[in-house]
Structure formats: C-alpha cells, structure tokens
Amino acid sequence: MVRYVYDFEDGGRDLAGLLGGKGANLAEMSRLGLPVPPGFIVTTEACRAFLAGGEEPEGLCADVSRHLSTLERAAGRLLGQPDDPLLVSVRSGARFSMPGMMETVLDVGLNDASVRGLAKVSGDERFAWDSYRRLVQMYGTTVMGVDQALFDEVMTRLKEARGTSDDLCLDAADLAWLVEAYKRLIHDRTHRDFPQSPAQQLREAILAVFRSWNAERARLYRRREHIPDELGTAVTVQRMVFGNLGHDSGSGVAFTRDPATGRPGLYGDYLPNAQGEDVVSGVRDAVPLAGLERLDPRSYRQLRAHARTLERHYRDLCDVEFTIERGTLWMLQTRVGKRTAEAAFTIACELVREGLVSSDEGLARVSGDGLARLMFPRFDASATGEALAHGVPASPGAAVGVAVFDRAQAVRRAATGEEVVLVREETTPDDLPGMVAAQAVLTGRGGKTSHAAVVARGMGKVCVCGARDIAVSAEARRFTARDGSVVEEGTVISVDGSTGDVFLGAVPLVASATMRYLESGEQADSVVSAVARALEHADAVRRLEVRANADTPEGAARARRFGAQGIGLCRTEHMFLGERRKLVEEMILARTDADRDRALAALLPLQRRDFTGILEAMDGLPVTIRLLDPPLHEFLPDRTDLAVRIAAAEAAGGQPDAHDVELLDAVSRMHEENPMLGLRGVRLGLVVPGLAAMQVRAIAEAVVERTRAGGSPRAEIMVPLVGAVEELRLAREEVTRVLAEVGEETGVPLPCPVGTMIELPRAALTAGRIAEEAEFFSFGTNDLTQTTWGFSRDDVEAAFFAAYLDKGVFAASPFETLDREGVGRLVRIAVEEGRAARPDLETGVCGEHGGDPESIRFFHDVGLDYVSCSPFRVPVARLEAGRAAL
Ligand code: ADP
Ligand code: MG
Ligand code: MG
C-alpha cells in the first residue's frame, strides 16, 4: 500500500522530493524544536497519481482522514467544530521553490456556524469574520475558479463606501457583509454554493492545490527555471495560527541575512494584525523588522534566535515566514533563500571564513551565471543626473528600457526587440510573463521581501521596489514622479538595482567592479574579494583547462588577463575581411595559377602579421589555429545585389561594369543550396590550390619570427570539418611539407602539432582512425549539434525552437546546452576511441558550449583536457570547471 501522507514527525529535509521543500522543511523545523503548528503532508506522489489519473488516488482520502483525526485529537477539537473550530491551512509546495506560483487556502473549516464559535472563543468578532472572508475568497478563486479581480472589486467598492483604503478600518459587520457578497459572487459565477462542510472544503482544497501545479504561471515559471513538469506538488495541511487577532498579532517574513547584498543580520518585513500573504502582497505597508523589535521585543528576540539556529543548521542563508498570535511566535516556513549574485558570493565567502562550510562547499554555492551577472556593466555614476525616483534596491544591476505598465505591453514590445522596464504598483504572480520579458522591474510598493523582489532576484533581473515617490497608474499607462514629471508608456528610463535610483533617459554604462578586477586585479570591495576567493579555489580544484576563442591580439590579451591558458580556437576567416576582401576575391576569381599565386602572396604577409601578434600575446601558451573553414562565397558579394546592379545598368541603356559581370559569373558558379554542407573546411584546402599552404606558411613564419625574437610561440594547426581519415592525411601531408620547407629555409625547428576538429558524426564514429593522423581533437560542438540533429541553426532557432521548448522536446536549446544523450554520446565515443588509438591525444571543445555551465560539467565528466570559449566567458568557465570537479 502506498503511503500518501506523512506527519511532520516522520519527515525531514532529505525528503523534499516526496514532501516538497515546504513540507520537508516544516518537518525539519519541528524536529529542531522550533515552534511550528502541527500538521501533515500529502506527498507529491499523490499529486502525480491524481494528475495522471484525473481522480483522487485510492487510499488518499482514508490517509488524510486518519491524519486529520490525529491533528484533531491533539488540538482537542474537530475541524470546523461549530463552538470551537479547528482551522487548517492547505498549502502547496514542490521540490523546488516556486514562490507564489501555486495556490494556498487558509482558514479551512470555517462556515456560517463555526465563524460564530470562533468569534466567541477568541472574544474577537472582527477577527472571526475577517478569517471567514479570507477563506471564502481564497476558496472561491483557488477551488471554484472565480477571478480574483472580481473579489477585489467587491472589496474596493466596500472600502469606498466606508471612505477608507485600509482593510483594518472595516468592522465585523462590514466583513460579515463581505462574506455574503463573496458567496453571492461565487454563486453567480459558478451556480454552485460555497460549501459549508469542512470535510468537503478540505478535500476540494487539496485537489485544487494539486491542480495548481499545472496553472499557466506555474508552467511558465518551471520552464524558465528548468524545473521538470512531472514532479508535482505536495500539500501541507497545518493547524492555523492567527496573525489577525489584533495588535499583539501579526505576520512577517525574514531573511537570516540581507538577500540583496549578503550582509549579515536579520532582515525582513512585519505587518501587525495581518494574516498570510498580506505582508508580501502590499495591501498595507509593512514595517521593517526593527519595528517589530519595538512592538514586541520578546518575539523579536526569539525570531532572531530561531534564525540563527536555522542558519547554523542549514549552513546557509534561510528565509522564513512567521506569525505572531497574541504574543506567541510561530514559524510557518523556511527554506534556503534566493539571493542575488552579489549576495551569493559574499555569503559563500563569509560562511567559509566562519568555518561553517568548506571551501569546496562555498564554491558549490556560487555559479558561473552569477559571475556573468557581476561582470555586466554598471551605470556611470558621474553621468547620472538627479534621480527621478528612489526605491528599495532589491536586485542589483543596471537596466535601460522603455516604461511599460502591464504584462501584455511588456511581452508585446519585448517581442519586437525593445528593452522594457515593467512598472507596477506591485506585482502579483500573474505578472510573471511581463517580468520575464522585462530588463527590470520597478514597483511603487513593497520591500525586499515583496513578490517583485523575490521573483526578480530569482531570475537575476534588476529590481527596484517600493519607490514611494512615484504614483503608478496602470490604466493611464504612466507614472508620476515626486517632482511632478510624468513618465508615459514608451519613455526610456534607467533603473539601478544596486542603489535603488531611477533616472529619466538612458544613463551611460561603465565596467563593473568585478570586471575591473578581472582586467586589472584590483579588489575594490568585499564582493570582488569574494569573487576572487571563489575563482582561486576553482582554479585550485579544477582539472579542465580553460582556453579562449580569440582571433586578434587584443582578444588574446584580454583572454589571458581573464585567466585563459591558451587559445583553443583562432579562426582565420575574420582575417579575410575588410580591405583584404579584395585579395580574397582575386584569389577566388584567378584564371591562371600565376594570378592566384600573386593574390596568395599578397595575403601571406598580412596573415603572418596576424599570427605574430596573437602568438606574442599568448607567448608560452598554446594557440590552436584553424585553417580557413567557411564556404568561399562568403567572401564574395551577394548574388542578388550583383544581378540587380547589372540589370539596372542595362536598363539604363549602359554597359554593366565588367568586373561586376565577372563577379556574378563566379558567384553563380560557386552558389550552393546548402553552403554549410558544401565546399568548406578541409574540402576547401584540398580543392583550392595553394590556400592551405599559404596559411601554414604564414603560421610557420610567424613562429620563426617569434622564436627569433626570443619568445616561445606554441602554434597548433587545426584542420576543420574532417569526416574521413583520408581527408586529414592529405591535408596533413601538405601541412608537414610546408612546415619542413620553412624549417629548412630558416633553420628554426617547427614542432607544431597538427590536429582536427571533430564536428561531423562520421568523424566521431571513426575517431579511432582519425586519431592515427591527429595529435589533438577539438570538438566543434556547434557544427556537431547541427549535423547530428540535422538542424540548420540559423533557420531552426527562430522557426520552431520556442514550440519545441513548449512541447518539451528538449528542456534547453541544444545549441546552448550540449545534448548529452545524442551529441554527448558522439563526443564520448570519439574521446574513448581516439585515446585508445593514441593515448596522448589531447582533447578539447571549442564550440559555444565551452562556456555553458551545464555543458562544462559534461566535458569534465567525459574527460576532456580543456574547454575553450569567448574571452568574456573565460572566468565563468574557470568557475564552472572548478564546480564540476567538486
Ligand atoms: P506560498 O508558497 O505562496 O508562500 P504558503 O503556503 O506559504 O504559500 O502560504 C501563504 C501564506 O499563508 C504565507 O504567508 C503563510 O505564512 C501563511 N500561512 C500558511 N499556513 C498558515 C497557517 N497554518 N497559519 C497561519 N498562516 C499560514
Ligand atoms: Mg510561503
Ligand atoms: Mg565548425
């Protein structure tokens, strides 16, 4: 018999998969002896069974009843008992936290009779009706599917009639009226009544929470966070405690450290006389925890002590939800808290220093994505004028975009490539698509723990919240700043999530402190020192080397400053552009060998100069130079343009330019339907006489020049797009011949290794043969992904990848994160068979995957010697290579 329900006593944080993070951590807290209202947890397994079968799995109902009885016995009263009701909350909670994305119903067990019982035993009639109206509303939306906005409207109208904007000014009679109005609303909309049976309420609420797993916003959130769709949510049923029992009650949220900066110290918001979501939803202004310290010092001290207990136990920043019921503190939730990249580095470094976690664990807690975020530019402080508004700096970074006031506008404008800033009075989970589309989020209300702040931090978006000096009107699509200036939709604003400032117009950007550190070694502040510690440790533990893809001396020098241990891919095609195009054109169009040789001879010194500069910048480190790869016609003018030009000249009655005619002829001759699968890579070298020889000579002469200048150049020659060992053998013969020639001419030894890219399935599958001719393999995972999947990258990404991601064909684009199952398998085969044939074969990757955290893990696992990525990704790759080795 499957067990669908667990008591808190039987759970713990190691059971998060089964009990959800929330349930597992509640169990953990109660086992730690913290004051947690008793309850039980319905497993994610039950949810999965329900969602798969469409009905309650067998045995669930009985399991729930049994645990409910235990809860009732302990409380000494029954769920919804008319004279003294036990009330419970029914809470969602999945393996991975999805803040606010699913549903929770509070105050389950109230009905027309028990509301009076509750009023009597509590001695507080207002409280009883306040709880009841909350239940009817939450139940009405979550279980019965009535639009939240309709309830809000009723509430707003009542407040207007009472001449107040504060729900605390509504008295018991008002709230009783509200309950009736809500019930009518539910009946009008659903033709069903709000159920009076507490047992039915409980059962329906549990099933509704299950269903909320598939709510649209929850799906969207999961897709963004790469959370699998099949996990399901657990449901926690827990005795209610009441923060809405008057002024010595309240509810709040806290972080054990500042989640924006990582600074130690309890941090959070508290709202007196409030229940549940009130504090994060911004219905009323919460006070900072210092306010609680004044209001109720005893509870505050306890909260601080519990926060310390949790932080020591979890050895990490935690966030908590708590409620104070008439001076008694209850802990309602904890989890390892989301934080900014800045805070992640600072906290990891601090915890290592405190001896709470090892250096390895500290490294595990930061990420390459976070580091990349810290490398983004900041606003130039000297260029900012007067701030238009100022709010809470809730998620750092600099963002410029046009102001938009609802999620639809955000999505629409972002889809056309505009950068947008979503401006809201406050955000709700429904705003998620808009937040995803925006560069930054700006709200008029709420603190560091508000919905906007929490979600933005989780997504790494810039966020300024609680900017009280702006008045946001979503209807009018504008906000008014304190100086009276009006910002209409479409106006460009700049949002600084690190200071909380908002500026009109686009503020110019400068390098961040982290970037300055990477460039110069200067450790300007504690965040940067934390980054430095993490990188040092990563360098100490990683097995993978990190090289860069660079094809200019400047790029090579920057990569080296960033810690690159060589160049894994030096493309030569960029060197054929600009004014050299003319020479390339001449080479391609040459009628005679002599013409071609002349063009090649003119290109030679230019190429040599390129290589000399790069070898100098990377002196002592390997530089892998790839022979020309792309189809030649990429260096010629566009066929249509030429045809149009010629036709226009003819139409005007004149003679078309002779050169144009000649070019068109050549371009037409070389036209390919499928250039990516055409005359390129090693095929070019084998078919166009003299081209490869010229490139190899340029490399060889550059090596000679650098050697004579006293340097230690380490050029490696790489042949692209090889599919068969014969191709490589022929190419290599030519390379060796030219190297020998130059060696003879100059008397300088040229020990340049020759290797190949593995970027065709055939190459991977015959790697054992290819290794006979290759001293190294470099996986070109971009082409290997294209050719393995049969995807033309430029065509498929825009056409249907979004649909594929939606339909779950893959969880991430295979061009961003290496497809382990298919492409990865080819890599594995090639490494194994290549090494079997040539034990000292060097292996690396030079596709864009070389800078992707997930993929780096794979390359570590499969045993490559290095990854190579763009210079700016080098620090990220160092960090992730270190994390992969833990
Ligand atoms: P979410 O996952 O959206 O945070 P929760 O399940 O945590 O949803 O609940 C929403 C709010 O209700 C939270 O503020 C929580 O603290 C409060 N809450 C949940 N259960 C109880 C309870 N038993 N007593 C009092 N408040 C509760
Ligand atoms: Mg919660
Ligand atoms: Mg390629």
From TrEMBL:
Pfam families: PEP-utilizers, PEP-utilizers_C, PPDK_N. GO terms for molecular function: ATP binding; kinase activity; metal ion binding; pyruvate, phosphate dikinase activity. It catalyses: pyruvate + phosphate + ATP = phosphoenolpyruvate + AMP + diphosphate + H(+). Substrate binds at R571, R626, E759, G780, T781, N782, D783. Its cofactor is Mg(2+). Belongs to the PEP-utilizing enzyme family. It is an enzyme of class 2 (transferase). PANTHER family: PHOSPHOENOLPYRUVATE DIKINASE-RELATED (PTHR22931), PYRUVATE, PHOSPHATE DIKINASE 1, CHLOROPLASTIC (PTHR22931:SF9). The lineage of its organism: Bacteria, Bacillati, Actinomycetota, Actinomycetes, Kitasatosporales. Residues 418-500 form the PEP-utilising enzyme mobile domain. Its EC number is 2.7.9.1. Residues 18-54, 63-284, 296-345 form the Pyruvate phosphate dikinase AMP/ATP-binding domain. Signal peptide: none annotated. Mg(2+) binds at E759, D783. Residues 535-882 form the PEP-utilising enzyme C-terminal domain. This is Pyruvate, phosphate dikinase. PROSITE patterns: PEP_ENZYMES_PHOS_SITE. Keywords: ATP-binding, Kinase, Magnesium, Metal-binding, Nucleotide-binding, Pyruvate, Transferase. The active site is at H451 (tele-phosphohistidine intermediate), C846 (proton donor).
